[in-house]
Write a structure and sequence with these properties.
Layout lengths: L2 E5 L5 E8 L15 E6 L4 H4 L2 E6 L11 E4 L18 H11 L5 E4 L2 E4 L15 E4 L5 E4 L25
Parallel strand pairs: 5-6, 6-8, 7-9
Antiparallel strand pairs: 1-2, 1-3, 3-4
Length: 169
């Protein structure tokens, strides 16, 4: 029979958890509410076998979309929420998120790359001005779309669109 007792040893048990073992159900569950390092030991086997261990609990980091700054990177392969660390893969998704968030002056930061987009008309009545596409970093951004296209509320023309690195302006 084993136990799972919080603390570095029987002489320093801290009372956070203490599960007595059972021969036929050797499982134990505990929910940690804080990040940190938590030592534990087995009471009957600590002295004879030095049976102990450590649970490392990492802090949860939650990213939240800032509707004023939406990010796009066609090369990104993770979960897309539009933040700098978890950008959208398409400009169309970024436009939809920015418009849905109803920020009056959103900026869409576009990483260098080639974007093949399908634009649909968005309800942009919440925008105070045109949505700004801004190139992030150095490199070329190429956008392919079926022309002519228009998006209500945006300053667009039915001509090829070229976006250049704003750090060179």
């Amino acid at each position: 029979m084993h136990t799972v007792t919080s603390g570095a040893s029987p002489f320093s048990a801290d009372g956070l958890f203490n599960a007595t073992g059972a021969v036929f159900n050797p499982t134990f569950s505990y929910t940690f509410n804080d990040a940190g390092t938590f030592p534990y030991f087995c009471s009957p086997h600590y002295i004879s076998n030095n049976m102990d261990g450590t649970v490392n609990v990492a802090a949860v980091q939650v990213e939240v979309l800032d509707p004023a700054n939406v990010y796009v990177n066609t090369a990104y392969t993770g979960s897309e929420i539009g933040t700098e660390n978890s950008p959208f893969k398409t400009i169309a998704a970024a436009i939809e998120a920015a418009v849905s968030a109803a920020d009056p002056n959103p900026i869409i930061h576009v990483a260098p790359g080639t974007y093949t987009e399908t634009f649909t008309e968005a309800n942009t009545s919440s925008l105070a001005s045109a949505m700004k596409l801004q190139v992030s970093g150095s490199g070329t951004v190429s956008i392919g779309a079926t022309l002519p296209f228009s998006i209500s509320g945006f300053h667009t023309r039915t001509i090829p669109l070229k976006i250049t690195d704003n750090s060179k302006e």
